[in-house]
Design brief:
single chain, five-stranded parallel beta sheet, alpha/beta, Aldehyde Dehydrogenase, Chain A, domain 2, 23 strands, Aldehyde Dehydrogenase, Chain A, domain 1, 500 residues, 15 helices
Length: 500
């Protein structure tokens, strides 16, 4: 079958999709124990896609039991790292072979442009799983520097049953960032996708089995956070929970872990990233494009979105003019059209949230320079125009709270000290950027910013070799890089006395 290239091609592919709607537990698809379902909705037209199994605590119990049994019997946990690598590479290749199907599922499920699903999300997920597969047989244990008649061994063991609770903005990619290292380390995994975007997770479950993962090692529980997610966080036989989502929910998960078995919890939560542009910016065109892309890409539904533009006053207007021009190229369109650069907001709830923040910005005195309205209303879908505010004070609501939509707040500053103070003056610390021709100044500002990632003269750059995560209320632990493996292993010390 030729690759789809046009809107008609993608619509034909979608019409022929077979949707997996059941949970995946212990190697097979099953209904929720309660028989309950929820509707999966296409945000581009507000139409139904499928009725999905709504799992809850009973399904969590079944899944955890299967994962624990698989872990204890050792068919995966005690398999040689090189053998796990072979399976994970096969898993990644199967994702690549089904790229168009998975991309279509991702796009109709959460509204992102098909061009992003095919070039970023699905290849990125496959690449992540392959990367950790390749890495796992190259991680060495350690021997401590002991006296000659003693040996201290430091070894890594899989932590056990790992629950991965992932968001809806990059459904399969964020899942891969967690299941890749967790599976590579030898754990059994329970993946709970967001109820807003379960389709690709449910489809790749059978690809994982086809690749050779033993039954029970990889399970998928669609359902709601307050039911299935909460049950996983409270379960005494879940050893580790890795979460990406809102800071409010992250705090709840920490409470649930404390109320149960003190399971280790890794959190990648919200952000309100400052994009700081000094007057000596080396390329204003590049800075404008990065600023626009950093907030409008993926409809602004990114925890690392460049949502606060801190700009030195003398270049504010020329930079803003360039950003406004860029915004004109990012108008929302049909997500299945390969020419669309910005798609639909994931659902009505999030659409209303974004529109509420836009109204709040106007009420508090910010100047609306472009956008601010609903687009493509005739489609029935949830589209928001790319929106740019000027004259924003850093203490305004739109400058302090995560909007998770295509809304940029422009904030003026006069000195390096002002930029640093305002850059850090939020509860979050996920990402930041600095634009300056003076590399010493750029490094000084980067060192002063309390953020897990700081870009210099670029935005949202990087690959799997570097860690990603946040300071402050943006969470703890790191996804990506070899450091991610540390989250899913226990360090064991074995001390030997050799005697005479």
């Amino acid at each position: 079958m030729p690759r789809p290239r046009s809107l008609d091609d993608w619509q034909d592919l979608v019409a022929g999709l077979s949707i997996r709607s059941q949970a995946f537990i212990d190697g097979r698809y099953v209904d929720a124990a309660s028989g309950e379902t929820f509707e999966c909705i296409n945000p581009a037209d507000n139409g139904p896609i499928a009725s999905i199994a709504a799992t809850d605590s009973e399904d969590v119990d079944r899944s955890v039991a299967a994962a624990r049994l698989a872990f204890e019997t050792g068919g995966w946990s005690r398999r040689a790292p090189a053998e796990r690598k072979t399976v994970l590479l096969r898993f990644a290749e199967l994702i690549r072979q089904h790229q168009d199907e998975l991309a279509a599922l991702e796009t109709i499920d959460m509204g992102k442009p098909i061009s992003d699903s095919t070039t970023i999300d699905i290849p990125g997920a496959a690449g992540c799983i392959a990367w950790y597969g390749e890495a796992v047989d190259k991680i060495y244990d350690e021997v401590a520097p002991t006296p000659h008649d003693q040996i201290g061994l430091i070894t890594r063991e899989p932590v056990g049953v790992v629950a991965c609770v992932v968001p809806w903005n990059f459904p399969l990619l964020m899942a891969a960032w967690k299941i890749g290292p967790a599976l590579a380390a030898g754990n059994s995994v329970i993946l709970k996708p967001s109820e807003k975007s379960p389709l690709t997770a449910l489809r790749v479950a059978e690809l994982a089995m086809e690749a050779g993962l033993p039954k029970g090692v990889f399970n998928v529980l669609p359902g709601f956070g307050h039911t299935a997610g909460k049950a996983l966080a409270l379960h005494r036989d879940v050893d580790c929970l890795a979460f990406t989502g809102s800071t409010a929910v992250g705090k709840l998960i920490l409470q649930y872990a404390g109320q149960s078995n003190m399971k280790r919890v890794w959190l990648e939560c919200g952000g309100k990233s400052p994009n700081i542009v000094f007057a000596d910016c080396p390329d204003l065109d590049a800075a404008a494009e990065a600023a626009g892309f950093g907030i409008f890409f993926n409809q602004g539904e990114m925890c690392s979105a460049a949502s606060r533009l801190l700009v030195e006053d003398e270049i504010r207007e020329p930079l803003l003019e360039k950003i406004l021009t860029f915004a004109g190229t990012m108008q929302p369109g049909n997500p299945l059209d390969p020419g669309t650069r910005m798609g639909a907001i994931v659902d009505k709830t999030q659409f209303d949230t974004v529109m509420g923040y836009i109204s709040k910005g106007q009420e508090e005195g910010a100047t609306l320079r472009t956008g601010g309205g609903r687009a493509l209303e005739e489609s029935g879908g949830w589209f928001v125009e790319p929106t740019v505010f000027d004259d924003v004070d850093n203490d305004m609501t739109i400058a302090q709270q995560e909007i998770f939509g295509p809304v940029l707040s422009t904030i003026r500053f006069d000195t390096v000290e002002d930029a640093l103070r305002m850059g850090n003056d939020v509860q979050y610390g996920l990402a930041a950027a600095v634009w300056s021709r003076d590399i010493s100044k750029a490094h000084r500002v980067a060192k002063g910013l309390r953020a897990g990632t700081v870009w210099i003269n670029c935005y949202d750059a990087g690959d799997l070799t570097v860690p990603f995560g946040g300071f402050k209320e943006s969470g703890n632990g790191r996804d990506k890089s070899l450091h991610a493996l540390d989250k899913y292993v226990e360090l064991k010390t074995t001390w030997l006395e050799l005697g005479g």
